[in-house]
Amino acid sequence: MSGIYNWMYYIASGGLILIGLYIVLVKTNLIKIVIGLNFIDTGINILLICIGYVRGRTAPIFSRPGISPANVVDPVPQALVLTAIVIGVAVLALALSIVIKVYQHNKTLNVTKIKGLKW
Amino acid sequence: MTLMIFFGVIIIAVILALIRAVKGPTAPDRVVGVDIMVTITVALMVLLGIFFKRRIYLDVSLIYAVLSFVGVIAVARYLDKGL
Amino acid sequence: MNQIIGYIVMGVGVAFLFLGALGVFRFPDVYNRLQAGTKCTTLGAFLSIIGAGIVEPTWFLKCLIIAVFILFTNPISAHALARASYKSGVKLWDKSVVDKCKDFEECAKAQEDDK
Amino acid sequence: MIFQLILIFIMIILAVAASLFKDLINAVVACAAVSLITSILFYFLQAPDVAMAEAAIGAGLTTAVFIIAIRKTERYEK
Questions:
Q1: From CA A43, how far away is CA D47, in angstroms rounded?
Q2: What is the CA angle A32-A108-D74, rounded to 5?
Q3: Residue A67: closest CA among chain B residues belongs to which residue?
Q4: Is D77 within a domain?
Q5: For a Cys staple, B16 with which of B52, C21, C23, C54, CB 3.0–4.6 Å?
Q6: Taking 90 as the threshold, does the pLDDT of residue A80 lie above it?
Q7: Matching CATH number, A2-106, of 2.60.120, 1.10.3470, 1.10.287, 1.10.10
Q8: pLDDT of A52-66, one tens digit each?
Q9: Do chains B and A touch (3 or more CB pairs under 8 A)?
């Protein structure tokens, strides 16, 4: 039973990435596809954070005297993910603006009926 | 020990709100479920701050308490045919 | 002594949170669910955060700020959601007895006709 | 320990529900709830600054951007 406690964050990130991949591959609505890309982004963020996690240690913020660098978790993936979240929102807004332009040009959101790239 | 009992009760409350958020027949029902889940989560984060004994963890709860109503306002303005 | 008072206040707050979630789960209508959920959950979150401030006395100011923000923002979202769900055409429960908003809108329409 | 497991289970249920909804408003609301549970998981993983950024962006900004996009296009997935 203690095995699943070591693996549960990997299960969470893998489950989110698989569900997002399913949405991107199967669904035909463009906004639903963007929601799937958002899920993949969140899953990868959880994966990067739980790589740097060490059990029994505390956050890398030196706000009181008893905290030394020997008992904090790894701060480098946290800084990486903090940047990745902001960039993810920028990519999301750009993708949605492209979706709005596609809708204004084709009057539909179904990707199987958009024939602008088929020739 | 007392905090553990509180966490158990709060998890049961989150599960009840989750059932309403998944099952609810119309769109405002689901928004109500998610809104209740957000408010319960703010209290859960403060109790977790006591559990971990770090004062800096209260800032997450503060950010959530200030900014959580923006999403609900956006959905409400959409249903109101505004925005 | 501080610890005991704080944990008692926190326990009352957690009980209100649970009752609010139970009301959201059990009630039959959007408006009933909104009323039960918002009132109980606002009081429950307020009491549990204040109890946390009593348990750790150096945290009391920050806990008070969080509680005041909960007290400001939660009724705003509930009010906007109730108004939106009424305007988007969600029906009341069939055993509801009074609909004040309908009377108010008819009264406003009659006043506009008078002008 | 069991709390994290229950939270992960709730998150997976919400993600599956977001993929099954036909109304895009419901899918966006479920997406905001997934962001909420993700923030609690970051809190358990001892990363409060990441949880703060995820809270501010996932709760407010992502939902508002999706709602504006749905307002400009159409609501139901056919």
A1: 16
A2: 60
A3: B54
A4: no
A5: C21
A6: yes
A7: 1.10.287
A8: 888 888 888 888 888
A9: yes
